[in-house]
Amino acid sequence: MEHLLAPSILAADFANLERDIQLINASEADWFHLDVMDGVFVPNISFGMPVIKSIATHATKPLDVHTVHAEACTHLHRTLAQIRSLGMKAGVALNPHTPVSTLTDVLGDLDLVCLMSVNPGFGGQKFIERTYEKTTVLRSMLTAAGSNAHIEIDGGVGPGNWKALVEAGADVLVAGSSTFNAADPHAAILEMKGQ
């Protein structure tokens, strides 16, 4: 199964953001992953619409803006419908402690499910091993529902686990620190793309 790689801009050098955007533009990565942190759902604040608009001006690949969290959304179905009504693909993210069964009633409304494999709010955390099993269960649920939604893994993804995640059923990998902190980011991307 071919998978996509979405380097997280959160791990980029914000003093040289355009340079790092051009690095991803010129790489074999597929998407830009944008972690928007609001200081409410998570304790940190990352960036908002002005920075996203600036990134969009320079990015030549799709922007994967971190999806709505099921835990923060009282009316998930309505929110997903609103996202789609604006011409965008709709995704939902789940924290490590949230079971994938939470999504049973909205599987047909999803283009992407982002499984957090670390606790949201901080980059560079250790990967939570339970994510492999959650990925397999979610892939079975999506297949049974006839859904083509992507399964995205966000947090602690790198050279040591990307292959097992793809084998478990993931088809989008968010790789921030393992891309931007690599001695050779282009080579790290190629490795995690399996090339």
Fold topology:
Layout: E1 4-6, H1 17-25, E2 32-34, H2 49-58, E3 63-65, E4 68-69, H3 76-85, E5 91-94, E6 112-116, H4 131-144, E7 150-154, H5 162-168, E8 172-174, H6 177-180, H7 185-192
Parallel strand pairs: 1-8, 2-3, 4-5, 5-6, 6-7, 7-8
Q: What can be said about this structure in brief?
A:
The chain has 195 residues and is α/β, with parallel strands linked by helices. The chain contains seven helices and eight strands.
Provide an overview of this structure.
The protein has 195 residues and is α/β, with parallel strands linked by helices. Helices cover 32% and strands 14% of the residues. The chain has helices at residues 17-25, 49-58, 76-85, 131-144, 162-168, 177-180, 185-192; strands at 4-6, 32-34, 63-65, 68-69, 91-94, 112-116, 150-154, 172-174. Helix 3 links the parallel strand 4 (68-69) and strand 5 (91-94). The longest helix has 14 residues, at 131-144. The model has no long low-confidence stretch (mean pLDDT 94).
